[in-house]
């Protein structure tokens, strides 16, 4: 136990190169090239040791955490003994991985046992490269076989945690996919409702505008019919006056009083005729104004429909952009 504590202290000092008095995750990840663990695995080891979750390890937390994980202590102490003695990186002129090569060529049973161990732990689904773990396993088996069981126990814990993390990740991915599918379905539903609402409002607007135009047209037609009837009445009145005047002229000569009366009547009729002609002219002018107003209303109707259609198109385009942004 004292040896383990000493190795843990030595490992803490190697991680804390600046002498800060605590170790962060970045300090441990700097040693990634010399360790048989990935960055994610180092992060999981750090999170396991960081009991209070403040993002840093004090010497007490560091040493206590490694004491709780006895197999982890043995693994990292062996690793950093190798680091300190420059055994991990080959020296100039030396062959790479001398212990591993010698062990592999000397004993096929060790290869079989290690393969069985990896199969039991399910390491092939977690590790892409088992060479570093295998090298350390062979080294412990050869130099310190009494630590091999603790190392295997440590591997069981590590791979179990990795598999649990992988299962949690898969569950989170499934939940995320379900949420994304539900969100897409909701967006599609909102889009369809918006399309129906736009279509309904457009139809209502066109219906109201058409009804208003028809109402104006009917009103103008009624006015025009009324003016035509008044004109017809004036024409009939003029014909009657002309007929009366003709009868008076073709009749017998009457007294001067009657002639005077006839003259007065004739003048009055002429004034009525002039007034009727004037009214007829005014009616024709009003009819022309009504026709021009009808034409202008028709053009305004077409322009209003065009503006409304263009406005609806811009609103639709804006809504489509918002929907794309929401997606």
Automatic annotation (TrEMBL):
<dbReference type="InterPro" id="IPR018247">
    <property type="entry name" value="EF_Hand_1_Ca_BS"/>
</dbReference>
<dbReference type="InterPro" id="IPR011992">
    <property type="entry name" value="EF-hand-dom_pair"/>
</dbReference>
<dbReference type="GO" id="GO:0005509">
    <property type="term" value="F:calcium ion binding"/>
</dbReference>
<keyword id="KW-0106">Calcium</keyword>
<keyword id="KW-0175">Coiled coil</keyword>
<dbReference type="InterPro" id="IPR002048">
    <property type="entry name" value="EF_hand_dom"/>
</dbReference>
<feature type="coiled-coil region">
    <location>
        <begin position="155"/>
        <end position="300"/>
    </location>
</feature>
<keyword id="KW-0479">Metal-binding</keyword>
<feature type="domain" description="EF-hand">
    <location>
        <begin position="37"/>
        <end position="72"/>
    </location>
</feature>
<protein>
    <submittedName>
        <fullName>EFC4B protein</fullName>
    </submittedName>
</protein>
<dbReference type="Pfam" id="PF13499">
    <property type="entry name" value="EF-hand_7"/>
</dbReference>
